Amino acid sequence: MKNTERIAALLFGAIFVGLSVMITLETLLRKLFSTSLQGVDELGGYALAIGSTIAFTLALLDRNHIRIDLIHRRVPAGGRAALNLLSALLLAALAAVLCWMAWIVIFETLDYGSRAQTPWATPLIYPQSAWFAGLLLFALCALTLAGRALWLLLGGRGAEFTREFSPRGLNEELQQELADLARRNGSQALAVEPASTKTASKVSEVAS
C-alpha cells in the first residue's frame, strides 16, 4: 500500500503542477500576445475531477478521511472495534457504488460519442477514463482494506486492527506533524508526550 500511496501522491502532484504551468502560459499569452489557448479552464475542470479521485485514495491510505468520534470514544473496546469495522465496510461499499456509477457514465459517453461543449471539443471519453481509473483505484484500495479489517478481526489480531483502523488521535497527529517537521529540518523525529506542555516545548525546540 505504501508504494500505491507514493505513486498516487506523485501523480496527484504532477497533475496540478502541469495545470499551474498551463495557467502560467495562458496568462503570459494573454498579457504579451493578446491570444489564448482557449481551453485552460476546461483542463482545470478535468484536473479537479481526476485529482479528487486520487485524493480519495490518498486520504484513505493515510487515514485522513474525517470520522466523527464523539460516540466512538465513549463505547467499550468491543463497540469501538465494531464501529471501526463498520466504517471500513461502508467506505468500501461507497467506493464500489461510485465506481459502478462512473462506469455507467463511461458507457453512455461511448454510446453517444459525447464531446465537451468547448472550443477544443474534447472527446469526453479521455478525461472520463482517467476519472474512472482514479475511482477504480479508490474502490480497489477500499475493498482491500475492508478485507484486511475482517482478516485481522477474525484472526484475533485486535491490537493491530485497532492501530490500523481506529480514527487518528491527537497524539498520533502530533507525532506525524513532528516527524514531518523533523524530516524537513534534517533531524530525527521527536516522540509525542501526553503532557501538552512537554509537547509544546518540543515543537518550539524543533521550530527554532
What does this entry look like structurally?
- This protein is globular.
- α1 packs antiparallel against α2, α2 packs parallel to α4 and α3 crosses α5.
- With 208 residues, it is mainly α.
- The C terminus is likely disordered.
- Helix content is 75%, strand content 0%.
- It has 2 domains: 167 residues; 40 residues, no CATH class.
- The longest helix has 36 residues.
- This is TRAP transporter small permease protein.
- GO terms for molecular function: transmembrane transporter activity.
- Part of the tripartite ATP-independent periplasmic (TRAP) transport system.
- Belongs to the TRAP transporter small permease family.
- It is found in: Cell inner membrane; Cell membrane.
